Amino acid sequence: MLPLLARKYLYRYLIVAIGLPILARLLAFAGQSLERRTGKDNVVSRGLKSAGRFAQRRADKAQGKKERKSKKSLR
């Protein structure tokens, strides 16, 4: 039997490691399917896709992954 304190951290880790990436993908998928269904981008689909990206960034940060730079400096 795990001590009570260790169980709390184990549950938190499982939520962050498994639950948050799944939630991020579901939100992004819902935004894309809504956009595809209506034929154009609207407030709800943008909000869902944005929430999905935010949740994915938080999950990556919690797992210690490096940030990806989308804009490259030009010289």
Question: What structural keywords apply?
Answer:
elongated; mainly alpha; single chain; disordered C terminus; 2 helices
Query: Cα-atom Rg, whole angstroms?
Result: 17 Å
Compressed to H and E, one letter per element, the order equals HH
Beta-strand residue fraction:
under 5%
The beta-strand count equals: 0
Instruction: Please report the number of helical segments.
Output: 2
Runs in which pLDDT lies below 50 for 5 or more consecutive residues are: 71-75
Q: What sort of overall outline do the alpha carbons produce when their principal axes are compared?
A: elongated
Write a concise synopsis of the structure shown.
By secondary structure, this protein is mainly α. The protein is built from 2 helices and no strands.
Describe the structure.
There is one protein chain. This protein has 75 residues and is mainly alpha-helical. 73% of the residues lie in helices and 0% in strands. The chain has 2 helices and no strands. Mean pLDDT is 82; it is low at 71-75.
Give the helix/strand layout.
Elements: H1 4-38, H2 43-62
Helix pairs in contact: 1-2
